[in-house]
Backbone:
């Protein structure tokens, strides 16, 4: 029980906001959560690069990604925490399912195709709807401005403005430029997915390390 | 307090091993597991099923706790006691933990699905002695790519068999010519008149039957009708009087079709090929009854030709040294056997592979 208390003190905001679910709060504790587990949900329009990002986070091959019809889950260990990352398909017809996956979420990662200007409005709309979800109340949002490797990609400042991120109240948010396909902005130097030369550059620039970004986002809340 | 929790753990463990718990849970899993495959991507329907599972477990556990009079606090305390962490109990608690762990739930369901599939395969095997062809391919387990590979493999097998049999026919033909020079003595040359006759008879048998088979398969398929136009060719040369050697191809080929029933296209393409091989220009549907009769006649005719050939051979053999006489028979009856055994082996291997794959999955998860 001491360990539970420790976790509680470590993540007071996370755990206390969770609704008491009767028996399942019991079962959750029963699981012996000595590990710090975080549930991260990856959302965004179709073709935003969610699954590629997920695979990149898990240091897997990103060349075999196909449009997601359902959802993918990967567990990534990061800074001693187990991150359970849920990537749910973004096609319009399955977006209505998103809300079934928001319960007990510790962090929302919202992925945007920075080069798809035509759909900025659509993606902004979807994000604002998510923000209003009861289950995501108070949950921090990390926005990945993906596909920065494309020359037509918009800069993060532009996207942040377009999404009216500054109007978000009672919500932590951050926007992060990245290229899920190359791993830039997603992976730390430890991944081995990035060439050594890049490692040196990225290694010095912690701004480009999404993993630590996620970590910071979580820790800042404690 | 420790004793108290120990008693509670034992009671809970007892419940988790009892039919009151196991039957509804197993029922649920068996009913819902069919959609769970081992694809990396999860289906949206999994979530719905997981929700239903949660509700079921919640209901069962709540009923149980009410019945026995355990509070949630006691339940929690018992479950987090070291006694409950023992390996044997962990397995019992797995279905409970799966309510809150989708990945665990998923692997339980996938495992159940594989178990059911294996069970079904076993039952089919027991009832029918062997698995039907459509199952040996494991169509629902194999990916499309594997299926394509299998089709190519079967096609290659078919081709090589044809070639082998053509080769055999040629050799048989050659054998008659070069008989006296090419062979080695393998049996005692002493032979009376009647023995070779009997021998020739027995060895004629297996050759006749395939020719019968031509007739049958051909008619049932209505595909090789054009053999008849070719008839004169066949009887003019002895090698070609042996189209029957191609007949065994039809047997396996037919099963090929049935095996690939699921892949309609494959079957069609095969039929198309068979038609081309047979040299038919018009589609099968246009074969008339008269043509079928022609086929039958053709089969009968072929059989007669075969008999004549055999008689001729018999005569030659009787004349030539008994050595070749004994050397010749083996190629004739044996060809189907090694061929079939190769095919059979492939099938067996396939089955074994499938079973191993399934078992592996069960064990792995």
Residues:
């Amino acid at each position: 029980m001491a360990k539970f208390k420790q976790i509680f003190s470590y993540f007071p905001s996370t755990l206390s906001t969770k609704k008491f679910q009767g028996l399942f709060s019991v079962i959750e504790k029963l699981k012996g959560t000595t590990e710090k587990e975080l549930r991260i949900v990856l959302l965004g329009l179709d073709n935003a690069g969610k699954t590629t990002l997920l695979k990149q986070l898990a240091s897997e091959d990103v060349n075999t990604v196909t449009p997601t019809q359902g959802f993918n889950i990967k567990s990534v260990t990061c800074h001693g925490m187990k991150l359970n990352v849920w990537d749910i398909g973004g096609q319009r017809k399955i977006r209505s399912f998103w809300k079934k996956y928001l319960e007990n979420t510790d962090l929302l990662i919202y992925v945007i195709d920075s080069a798809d200007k035509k759909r900025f409005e659509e993606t902004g709309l979807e994000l604002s709807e998510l923000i209003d979800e009861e289950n995501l109340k108070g949950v921090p949002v990390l926005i990945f401005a993906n596909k920065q490797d494309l020359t037509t990609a918009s800069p993060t400042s532009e996207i942040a403005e377009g999404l009216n991120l500054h109007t978000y109240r009672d919500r932590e948010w951050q926007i992060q430029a990245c290229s899920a396909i190359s791993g830039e902005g997603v992976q730390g130097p430890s991944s081995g997915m990035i060439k050594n030369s890049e490692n040196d550059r990225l290694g010095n620039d912690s701004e480009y390390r999404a993993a630590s970004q996620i970590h910071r986002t979580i820790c800042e809340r404690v | 307090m420790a004793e108290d929790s120990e008693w509670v753990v034992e009671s809970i463990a007892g419940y988790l091993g009892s039919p009151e718990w196991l039957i509804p849970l197993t029922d649920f899993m068996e009913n819902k597991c069919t959609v769970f495959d081992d694809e990396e991507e999860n289906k949206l329907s999994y979530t719905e099923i997981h929700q239903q599972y949660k509700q079921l477990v919640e209901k069962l556990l709540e009923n149980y706790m009410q019945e026995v009079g355990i509070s949630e606090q006691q339940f929690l305390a018992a479950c987090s006691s070291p006694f409950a962490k023992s390996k044997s109990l962990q397995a019992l608690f797995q279905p409970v933990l799966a309510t809150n762990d989708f990945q665990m739930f998923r692997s339980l369901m996938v495992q159940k699905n594989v178990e059911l599939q294996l069970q079904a395969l076993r039952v089919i095997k027991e009832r029918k002695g062997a698995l039907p062809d459509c199952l040996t391919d494991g169509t629902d387990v194999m990916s499309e790519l594997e299926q394509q590979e299998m089709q190519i493999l079967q096609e290659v097998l078919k081709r090589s068999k044809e070639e082998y049999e053509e080769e055999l026919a040629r050799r048989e033909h050659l054998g008659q010519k070069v008989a006296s020079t090419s062979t080695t003595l393998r049996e005692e040359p002493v032979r009376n008149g009647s023995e070779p006759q009997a021998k020739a008879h027995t060895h004629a048998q297996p050759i006749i039957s395939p020719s019968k088979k031509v007739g049958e398969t051909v008619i049932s398929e209505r595909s090789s009708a054009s053999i008849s136009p070719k008839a004169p060719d066949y009887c003019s040369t002895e090698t070609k009087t042996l189209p029957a050697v191609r007949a065994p191809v039809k047997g396996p080929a037919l099963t090929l079709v049935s095996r690939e029933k699921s892949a309609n296209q494959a079957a069609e393409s095969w039929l198309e090929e068979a038609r081309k091989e047979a040299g038919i220009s018009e589609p099968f549907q246009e074969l008339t009854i008269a043509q079928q009769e022609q086929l039958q006649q053709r089969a009968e005719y072929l059989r007669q030709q075969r008999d004549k050939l055999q008689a001729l051979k018999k005569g030659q053999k009787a004349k030539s040294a008994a050595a070749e006489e004994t050397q010749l028979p083996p190629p004739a009856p044996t060809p189907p056997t090694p061929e079939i055994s190769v095919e059979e082996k492939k099938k067996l291997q396939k089955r074994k592979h499938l079973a191993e794959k399934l078992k592996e999955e069960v064990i792995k998860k």
User: Anything to note?
Assistant: The domain at 35-221 of chain A is CATH 3.40.50.300 (Rossmann fold). The helical segments of chain A are 2-10, 12-17, 23-30, 50-57, 120-131, 156-162, 196-204, 210-221. The mean pLDDT of chain A is 76. The two ends of chain A are 20 Å apart (CA to CA).
